[in-house]
Design goal:
The complex is a heterodimer of chains A (149) and B (120).
Chain A lengths: L6 E8 L2 H16 L5 H22 L7 E8 L3 E7 L26 H8 L2 E4 L5 E7 L3 H9 L1
Antiparallel strand pairs in A: 1-2, 2-3, 3-5, 4-5
Chain B lengths: L1 E4 L2 E6 L2 E6 L3 E2 L2 H17 L4 E5 L5 E2 L1 H16 L3 E5 L3 H10 L6 E3 L2 H5 L5
Parallel strand pairs in B: 3-5, 4-6, 5-7, 7-8
Antiparallel strand pairs in B: 1-2, 2-3
The chains are: A alpha+beta (149), B alpha/beta (120).
Chain lengths: 149, 120
């Protein structure tokens, strides 16, 4: 496959980690061969792991009978991925900031922060059960902004 | 060197316990549970433990590992112990900085550096 090609693929998988891992591997391979660097690959990998974990554990409550759908469009310029679970959704604005006060000592609640730090666009649908992630090439400014904030 | 689990190697420097994470990637629940199952008895059986966790093999981790580190640290501090982290890859260090956990953990460049100032 030529690295300049546009790649599009969708999946509908069971809500189990093994199936999510297979999708994650395929997505990362598509990203890698389109010339994204090691740091970008690390960030996309981390965002995907956190998003799949949220979909499986929080969205679908670990129920393997529930489904997760994934839509992806990967080009040399941007990575565009949507992950939808069958949950009732959540309000991302209601999440406490894990960097402040006693939240710093909590054992969970950092996944969405990391997704936001490494991706350029993080949007949720109105119901809150679909996360739309976009990363453009070269996001050093985004990471710096997250570190400085 | 003791192998408490396939993903954790333990060495003793006098009274200091040096735990090296063996896996390159730590991301699934099974790995986290195995690590927790190795670390917690170690911490519970040693009052005022001085524990160094070496990340030199680790190239990727998720927020679940950060949660595990906080659980371990709380248990250690409850019992008057010390926890130090060392040899963290630059990309993973960025994750600590983004989450500001670099402010609450003592982080050192390598094992030798982490051993300085601990009672042996």
């Amino acid at each position: 496959m030529a690295p300049t090609t546009v790649w599009h693929k969708s999946w509908n998988i069971s809500s189990v980690r093994r199936e999510a891992e297979a999708v994650c591997r395929e997505l990362l391979k598509a990203v890698q061969i389109r010339g994204y660097d090691e740091h970008e690959l690390f960030g996309v990998h981390l965002a995907l792991e956190e998003a799949f974990m949220n979909a499986i554990q929080h969205g679908n409550h670990g129920d393997p009978a529930k489904r997760i759908s994934i839509d992806s469009l990967i080009t040399p310029e941007k990575i565009d991925i949507s992950i939808t679970d069958e949950g009732t959704g959540f309000n991302p604005k209601g999440l406490p900031d894990p960097r402040h006060g006693n939240n710093l000592y909590k054992c969970s609640g950092r996944g969405v922060l990391l997704i936001r730090a490494y991706m350029d666009v993080v949007e949720y649908n109105e119901r809150g059960n679909c996360v739309h992630l976009i990363k453009f090439r070269d996001t050093q400014g985004r990471i710096k902004k997250a570190l400085d904030s | 060197m003791d192998q408490l689990s396939p993903n954790l190697e333990i060495k003793y420097h006098g009274t200091v316990i040096l735990a090296t994470l063996a896996d390159e990637k730590i991301l699934d629940d099974t790995q986290i549970q195995e690590l927790e199952g190795s670390f917690m008895p170690l911490v519970e059986q040693n009052d005022a433990i001085q524990l160094i966790i070496d990340f030199s093999n680790v190239k990727f981790l998720t927020s679940s590992v950060l949660g595990l580190l906080i659980r371990i640290s709380k248990k250690i501090y409850e019992k008057g112990g010390k926890l130090r982290l060392c040899a963290i890859d630059a990309k993973i260090m960025e994750v600590f900085r983004i989450t500001r956990l670099d402010k609450i953990f003592e982080i050192f460049s390598d094992q030798d550096d982490a051993l300085v100032g601990l009672k042996r």
